Amino acid sequence: MAEHSNLPASPDAGGHDEAAHGALDYGTRDERGRFILPLEEHHQRITDVDPRAAKRAERQVAWLFVAGAACFAGAVAAFVGFSSHELIHVPMLGNVSASNFWLGTLIGLGSFFLGAAAIHWARRLMPGDEAVDYRHSLRGDEDSRASAIEQFKRGAAESGFLSRPLVRRTMLGAMALFPLPLVVLLADLGPAPKEKLRHTMWGDKPATRIINQGSGELVRPEHLAVGGLINAIPEGLEKVEEEAGTQNERAKSSIILVRMNPSEIKAQQGQGWDYQGILAYSKICTHVGCPISLYQQRTHALLCPCHQSTFDLSDAGRVVFGPAARHMPQLRIGVDSEGYLVSLGDFAEPVGPSFWERG
Amino acid sequence: MSTSTTPTTPQGKVADFLDERLSISKAIKSNISKVFPDHWSFMLGEVALYSFIILLLSGTYLTLFFKPSMVEVIYNGPYVPLKGVKMSEAFASTLHISFDVRGGLLMRQIHHWAALFFIGAMSIHMFRVFFTGAFRKPRELNWVIGTVLVLLGIVEGFMGYSLPDDLLSGTGLRITQGIIAAVPVVGTYVSFGLFGGEFPGHDVVARFYTLHILLIPGLILALVGAHLMMVWYQKHTQWPGPGRTEGNVVGYRLFPVYTAKAGGFFFVVLGITTLISALVSINPVWMFGPYTPDQVSAGSQPDWYMGFLDGAVRVMPNWEINALGHTLSLNLIVPALVLPGIMTTLLGLYPWIEAWATGDRREHHLLDRPRNAPVRTALGVMSISFYLMLWISGANDIIAQTFRLSINQITVALRVLLFVVPPLMFMLTKRWCLSLQRRDREKVLHGHETGRILRLPHGEFVEIHAPLSLEEQAEILGKMDVAPMALPAATDANGVAQPAAWKARMQAKLSQWFYGANVSLPTRAELLEAQSHFEHADALEVEATNRHRTYEAVGGVLLAPTEDGSSRH
Ligand code: HEM
Ligand code: FES
């Protein structure tokens, strides 16, 4: 391969030995095989030769600056003139906030004019000819390099870093432990996971009543027709949330109830976990935790809106399609003495996304 | 000092004050006339820089009103549909900014649009640097800084997007939590640490806020500073052109032309961003409502820069390993951690990969036209098409709905296309580059077609070709004419096998793959001949034109004079 010199071609490789107009000589090539053609002669803009054109350009620039200033003044007027609630009708946009529309339009146009003026000024009235700079080698010359190394060595020797291994090793040891307390300090960012991800409030009592998440009413079997779906939560969830100040429990214990003909149920996660064809499943996708409620009653398919994992609720919540790896956990239900639907214990497995300790 | 002059004007006094304390005269003297090459593609980095400045300004304004708190409040503001609804203070303050603060909505929209432009401009700037080979020695470190900046920009944008605590951003956080929890060994602990316990907790908005307004912008600012200082010190690359060499920089001086153009351009970018923010609504959080973990808005899409990750997660098969009491969620680890990890590592290391493959370790200050480095260009297009396929996969549900196809079929098709399209794009791009090279060679030697037809004395019709302009020629002829490394002999001079040579042979083969097919430049003799040819044709045409009056013109066809000066037709 061609010789790999790091030095760029000599600074004056191009530009001087060929006439800038007329015939080209093609006589200069750099060591990488490029033809270096001569720099163009001064190219004249109309503003360089015609003083009237230059005067016109000057006026254009000034007008652009004036337009910018006018827009900025207008923006202040718009700020004062419109309350934040006023709407105006703008064709194509519909009814929009008047303040937002005028402030934005005027500040936007003003900035645009200001910028355009500066660029126009530079292009028309400032020097139009290109200038040439030369590059210098980035690599230090041999003297500097040698001197740098020598001085470093002197300092290293003076420090005794190499000649006193005891100091060196103990220092490295201390440095190695230095980050430790800093990392440990982060431990209190959150509690240890322990068994938290394995429990929901459905397991707090032997039987927890089920509430319709939309209406807030207790659910009875007759509320749910075959083919229907109800989004539901455990009774008392609001109170738990209130006390905790978080929505953590809701993120675990939300469920959906669906009803199908008992004959349509192919499998469940436990014998008799349904109540007369009513099945309760976690609402939290086992993929990465989106809440699901798109249900196709004909196929009993539950479709997650986030990454389209599909689960068959008539077949123990099995994954039919998509990136989720595990079935939707089923909740065992029954009715209590007053005829309300209740859960009979907690989910048999953690709900929601996988985690390392899940097993 | 005895020779020092004492300034009398006020400006002079200020300058003198500063110079006597900071020696500003030295800094100004050596920098103010610095030359910057000019090309439209060099403005992409500027757009990124200006968008970042706009983000800093608009973001600082937003901090004056935004409350990064997840304490629940009941909304009682002017937006009627949400009156009486429970929501976090973060969400409520975002509504306050949008509906009560004059100009607040504008600032929110400017901030969000600028974030999209920032990451978009950085990406396209990166493509420019890639396809022109500007990352080569001595600029590899700046390429690495750029890679880190794109990553930080994406993280910063994602965190900002999460702050308003609306249904859309909360869903994004939920997905993030699920992905973090899938990380082997530490995932669950990291997730509990980030959210202060289980998801969603009441800490994450405040924590993201600190990261979003302090830590990450600080890092970005520092890296942008280092990036620009390096550009300054190493001087900008330039396109091949008349008078441009590896050893010089041709362009406009910092002061005044470049200052005026760049300063003006900042205001143009600001103006366009503000106009878009005035006219096009973005992230209308009040329509999504506050976050609650048991609701999701269907068809929700993340900001564009997260789309490829979303797509990767969607098309990944549902592999999960359960063994020894542990769960390894390959369906998440592979698309959301391993894949982006590999992508960014390859991206960051590319300058060294190419230098290794070509054996070219020289400094480069003149850019390659993309066509003149066909393999590099093809690799770039291949990678972009892979990224775009992932991005498209993020919309598999929308595609299925639009074309009324089953989501299952679409997803399976996308899985196949993800591995078929990129190699195909590689092959197509490489061929296209080579054919452009051939066309270039053709053009310098034969010139532009002018559409003017000349009839020669013996009756032949020829089209007049005009020579290329100086710039056009300089651009084409400014191509590196490299010979790939020669294959070292498998045996030494005595015919003994050289097993150690395999490495050199592989390198040589790679280098041939990289450069081998390149079309070589014409020789000087060919160029001179072409030039005299043009001159000759020119002369013929001039002569024909001069005698135009005496000859018949047939449908715009000029008739060249015969030897004896009479027209023959
Ligand atoms: C590199 C730059 C940055 C990016 C990409 C970015 C991105 C974002 C995005 C996408 C949002 C959501 C906006 C919405 O639609 O509501 C946001 C919100 C926010 N950002 Fe930034 N940002 C950046 C820098 C900053 C800086 C430097 C600050 C402050 C000094 C800041 C302060 C804020 C605040 C207070 C919010 C919440 C306000 C609200 O949503 O109404 N950002 N950011
Ligand atoms: S969260 Fe349900 S498919 Fe991803």
Q: Can you offer a commentary on this structure?
A:
- Chain A is of the alpha+beta class and 359 residues long.
- Chain A has two domains: 3-189, no CATH class; 194-358, Rieske Iron-sulfur Protein, CATH 2.102.10.
- Chain A is 31% helix and 16% strand.
- Chain A is built from eight helices and 14 strands.
- Chain A has helices spanning 46-49, 51-81, 98-124, 142-159, 165-177, 179-185, 237-244, 250-253; strands spanning 87-90, 94-97, 131-134, 207-212, 229-234, 255-259, 278-282, 294-296, 301-303, 310-312, 318-321, 330-331, 333-335, 341-344.
- Chain A has a seven-stranded antiparallel sheet with strand order 12-7-6-5-4-14-13.
- The longest helix of chain A has 31 residues, at 51-81.
- Chain A is extended and about 100 Å long.
- The two termini of chain A are 57 Å apart.
- Chain B is mainly alpha-helical and 569 residues long.
- Among the domains of chain B are: 1-31, no CATH class; 40-237 and 248-294, Cytochrome Bc1 Complex, Chain C, CATH 1.20.810.10.
- Chain B has helices at residues 10-22, 24-31, 43-63, 89-99, 104-131, 140-162, 167-181, 187-195, 204-234, 254-279, 285-288, 307-315, 330-358, 374-393, 396-403, 407-446, 470-477, 502-515, 524-546; strands spanning 35-36, 72-74, 86-88, 248-253, 321-323, 326-328, 448-455, 461-466, 558-559.
- In chain B, the strands form four sheets. A three-stranded mixed sheet of chain B has the order 8-7-9. In chain B, strands 1-4 form a two-stranded antiparallel ribbon.
- Helices cover 60% and strands 6% of the residues of chain B.
- Chains A and B meet through helix 3, strand 3 and helix 8 of A and helix 5, helix 7, helix 8, strand 4 and helix 10 of B.
- Strand 3 (131-134) of chain A pairs antiparallel with strand 4 of chain B, so a sheet runs across the interface.
- Bound molecules: protoporphyrin IX containing FE (HEM) and FE2/S2 (inorganic) cluster (FES).
